[in-house]
Amino acid sequence: MRYDHRAVEAKWRQVWEERGDHEPDLDAAEDPFFNLMMFPYPSAEGLHVGNVYAFTGADIYGRFQRMCGRDVFEPMGFDAFGIHSENFAIKIGDHPKTLIRRNVENFRENQLKRIGARFDWAHQVNTTEPEYYKWTQWVFIQMFRQGLAFRKKAAVNWCPDCMTVLADEQVISDRCERCDELVEQRELEQWFFRITDYAEKLHQNLEWIDWSDITKTAQRNWIGRSEGALLRFEIDGREEHLEVFTTRPDTVFGATYMVMAPEHPLVDEITAEDKRQEVGEYRAKARAATQEERTAEDRPKTGVDIGAYCINPANGERIPIWIADYVLWGYGTGAIMAVPAHDERDFAFAKTFGLPIREVISPDGEEHDLEEAYIGQGVMIHSGQFDGMPSEVGKKAVTEHLAEKELAEPRVEYRLRDWCVSRQRYWGPPIPMIHCGQCGVLPVPEKELPVLLPELEDFTPDDSGRPPLARAEDWVKVTCPGCGGDARRDTDVSDNFLCSAFYFLRYPSVGMDDRAWDPERTRKWLPVDMYIGGNEHACLHLMYTRFVVMALHDAGLLPFEEPFVKFRAHGLLTKDGAKMSKSKGNVVNPDDFLESTGADTLRLYLMFCGPFQQGGDWRDEGIAGMRRYVERLYNLVMDDEVVDAPVEGELERAMHAAIKKVGEDLAELRYNTAIAATMELLNAIRDADTTPKQAVETLLKLIAPIAPFVTEELWHELGNEGTIHDGPWPEYDESKLVTDTVEIPIQVKGKLRGTVAVPTEATEDEVMAAAREIPSVQSQIEGKEIRKVIFLPGKLMNIVV
RNA sequence: GCCCAGGUGGUGGAACGGCAGACACAGGGGACUUAAAAUCCCCUGACCUUCGGGUCGUGCGGGUUCGAAUCCCGCCCUGGGCACCA
Length: 801
Description:
The protein is an alpha/beta fold. It is about 35% helix and about 20% strand. It contains 26 helices and 37 strands. The strands form 11 sheets. Strands 11, 12, 13, 14, 15, 16 and 19 form a 7-stranded mixed β-sheet that branches. A 5-stranded parallel β-sheet has the order 2-1-27-28-10. α18 crosses α19 and α21 (about 650-665) packs parallel to α23. The radius of gyration is 33 Å and the shape is flat. It binds one RNA strand through α7, β12, β16, α11 and β31.
């Protein structure tokens, strides 16, 4: 009989929806399990197969938890603000509002509802609806109240094509992540969130949160924690001093010059008269250069001696101060002590300008002519009282010694920068702040939220740096909540990543318009039990989210400080070994396959392509095989005589083995091998003389999380009521897994020479006797002395001659 | 340059100290059919073979072990992240 997936899937979609199978009672649930996946951006092109891949993998996990008895909440939403929609709307001459409504409708009704996921549509969010972004604005205000939102005039990344400010993370090797245009630096007043206040906690908690290692590693790199010391160098003949951060205080005796970043404010004050012109020119040049130019690889070192001197606190030596653009303003103190003997960059600089190079760390205690910087550990030399000390010990010893004279203190630095959250664009939540000439900057009173995004005919950005919202003059004028005088609204919108930094907090409380999240519901459902998404968000979305939750926790608004107890990064789905991309024209359209082979087949095939956490490779030919599998399963129930007979013998063993294997694999997201195991069980059932109902029902349950429609259909076909998807998950009996006889491989000197079938409990002597019967074993041991026998009962014998 | 993740048949991938290639795809042969499709059965790492079997084989080179795809050391290649971060 031919399997009609269209009719079957439509039928169960309707039944599940009408019955509310996917909508747990959020207040009454006894064993809550919050199964979260990264909500999509609803593009005009429609749902990408990569989304289906990610959602299916996450949904299987949720369905498995449900069958294991948990009350699973699996919501879905739309991350629809941002530059993408805005640019696309401008391109097609439409308004983002109507565009997004259309896209969301298409995503939800035509695509997401068809992929067989147990989404709770009663609790969806759309970040562009006022009832949602009211809370985005509210969160902004909470951050402000915590002292974590501040304004700073800063050199920011400006994309001349998108005509907006970009976060550091949105700049990939000096180009705009979205449009690939070369990014410029512009001085603008911006809103920042002080994520650096949480650098240590963000780093620390990585120790215990249960996340994919690749994601944790990416976050560690991004935070860039490094331990060292702050050293203080007096400036010769002046009151001021220069502070530097170093991870190698043990090399301080080798500091032969100092370097300040060109932007360092102290440069102006201490530059010698006769150097002013040269220094001024160098600083102007550095300012004009793009990040690309400044950081290009193997670029020759440049710099200028500013004619001032520092006193090395370790040996009292008078050393010159330079400025050079290889020292970055914005990391550490923006100044360094240069130790050319033990730092590659300082070495190159010293060579270029003929500055002295003094070896102070020696790998063997001897002196060397250095061809290159020695950056390893060793013994301290030319270091006064520290001579002979191992450099690892010296780090601490030097710091402590200088600390006594208040010239040093231990210090931890981070690479992480504060989060620029303002955007000079239209399509985002207006930043809920008011600028008053009398009162300064203050938040919009919470009862006046949301600050609605004004309807603008012309919302295109221009090159002035003046945001589109500034043109809505009536909207901008506002009464100051502080003094009642005339004031102006902030005309920036907030970064998209703020919308997605708390959406999961909102899901359980959707519909409550008087609170961001209900304390009861939140205590019950959060933190999220499992979060699945792409690792490309490791440094952006996932980092910002952790930060926002920590800040809300410290504000007393959340009872936990980590949002996701467990996070797993899924892999990338490729096509014929290559990355899918529109330009290559090798993008798989999931709609085609949902229509032609159905959701079950698509889900099975996607998950069969490879290990979910590593990714997989899609081949069009492959999916036909999966369709055949679904049909074999269907025909097993429809055509075969399914009988009420006991499950016995080999089939019984196979069934228990499959339950064990599939259960373990699903829990570890190893869906490809779980599917293979169900295939083996199906083959075992077909090989058996009869088709026992219990074996078939077990098989259906094992596949149910992956192929929800056909298993539900066949479950009822076998006369069952209710739904297969509420479980219970079948149990296996360990004792059924052992067989009476086993095939034991016989090796001679580690090479396989044959197998013997013996009782499971056979002793070494019995196995040896059987092994001697095998001709190929005989020929290998004939006339040789048996030196040793490795025997693992029931598993293996290795004869060493 | 540094840090991760990988490299296994024609292909996707299994196995993660103990029979390499589970499960599939593709290919070949057969059954059924007037024929084809569908379905079902068999074969399918390479080389040699007296058809019993033998030799080689998991990116490359070493090592540990009775035994290594798996552990260790040194390379090469692919993908991802960070990168003048002191």
